[in-house]
Amino acid sequence: MEDSLAIVFAILVSIILMFLFPLLDTWELQDNLSYATTYAAVVDFVDTVRNVGYISPEAYYNFESKLMMTGNTFSVRLEHRKFIEDGGVNDYLNTYTNEIMAKLDAGEIYPLNQWDYFYVTIKNTNKTQASVIQNFLFAGADETFKIGTAYGGIVWARSE
Known about the structure:
- By secondary structure, the chain is an alpha+beta fold.
- It has one domain.
- The chain has a four-stranded antiparallel sheet with strand order 3-2-5-6. Strands 1-4 form a two-stranded antiparallel sheet.
- Helix 1 (2-52) packs antiparallel against helix 4 (129-138).
- The chain has four helices and six strands; from the N terminus they run αβαββαββαβ.
- The protein is elongated, with a radius of gyration of 23 Å.
């Protein structure tokens, strides 16, 4: 009886070592590739916006389609910090995703001015295959956020 329990235990351990860990490693590599793709898409989109001085609906939807190519779903947060110079006092007026998307969804260009700041923050909202296996193997690490990045900077061009 003890020998049969040891054999069953050895079979379970060998299955985990031979199949689940290599599978986990492969899916983590998939997450790394998805991260690289999303990072490149975010940097390309933000740098384009900073260089031309506006967000066009086409540029945003091209950005969104690049994110979808990873097979993940993302929460995208846009932030525009408008530079305001009022009587020698410098300040910023923040505009966020909902207001920016309202203009883009209406087919309008969202303008930015020189010296404004523009930021994009993304993170995945779905469970990746690697996180599903990790939750199974390590019992309880229930995280959904694995792929995300933030990027932004100062706008160099005027949108006129």
